[in-house]
Write a structure and sequence with these properties.
globular, 6-stranded mixed beta sheet, single chain, Deoxyribonuclease I, Chain A, alpha+beta, 7 helices
């Protein structure tokens, strides 16, 4: 089962790039963040992506998430849900036989850091409830927190900058402790150059001076069956790289 996760930073601006990576990878599940568009603003081919059950959850010009499931994986349209703490079109989930999958866009926190912490706390409580119910879980998205200093290029490390603060890192660790595993880090434990976001100036992306703030978190039994989890740094013009994760489970 292949999962594509990507903060597109404006889906209308990345239409051709999204089409290219979907056609190339043919993922079973597609998780998108920061759509910056309502469903009514999207072209028909995006709204009705061929071969997928599509769910778009967004508003004009800000935030927004998408979650799309291959019809080969799920012959009947699955039920998509929003936990009660969802706001600003930041979260959508779907229950599949293989796992409950979430596409998440955590607030940056620059305008309201407390709101970011509240969202992370609610996400942690929701993940705990899923695990208590015995449901395998995969959380994909832009979580807007660099997990450790290794997840930030040395030139970008600033202890009190939002995204690197101890309070938000502690909440991310608590979320992961709910029976989840950081799939990228599990497969690449010593890679200090594994980043997913690069500030759009000074050629930082080409120089790979970035942060790792996008994740695929999976229940440990699923994480143990992950065979690859790569960042497509050379793909697309978003300031985030797409993540492609492959799990050796029936699709």
């Amino acid at each position: 089962m292949k999962i594509l996760n990507w903060n597109v930073n404006g889906v209308r601006a990345r239409q051709a790039e999204l089409q290219e990576i979907v056609e190339r990878e043919r993922p079973a599940v597609i998780c998108l963040q920061e759509l910056k568009a309502s469903p009514e603003q999207l072209p028909v081919w995006v709204v009705e992506m061929e071969g997928y059950w599509c769910y778009w959850h967004g508003g004009k010009g800000y935030s927004g998430v998408g979650l799309h499931v291959s019809k080969a994986l799920c012959p009947e349209r699955p039920d998509f849900h929003h936990p009660s703490f969802d706001f600003e079109h930041r979260l959508v989930t779907v229950h599949l036989p293989q796992a409950t999958i979430a596409s998440v866009y955590v607030p940056n926190g620059g305008k309201d850091f407390d709101a970011k912490l509240r969202f992370l706390e609610a996400l942690d409580a929701w993940a705990d409830a899923q695990q208590q119910d015995g449901r395998p879980l995969i959380v994909c998205g832009d979580l807007n927190v660099a997990r450790t200093d290794m997840d930030v290029h040395p030139k970008e490390r600033k202890p009190r900058v939002i995204g690197q603060r101890p309070e938000e890192r502690a909440l991310l660790e608590r979320l992961i402790s709910r029976g989840l595993d950081d799939v990228q880090r599990r497969l690449h434990p010593d890679d200090a150059e594994l980043f997913t976001w690069w500030a759009p100036w000074r050629n930082l992306r080409a120089r790979n001076i970035g942060w790792r703030i996008d994740y695929v978190l999976a229940s440990r039994a699923l994480a143990e069956r992950a065979s690859s989890c790569t960042v497509e740094r050379e793909t697309g013009t978003s300031d985030h790289g797409a993540i492609v994760a492959v799990f050796d489970v029936p699709a």
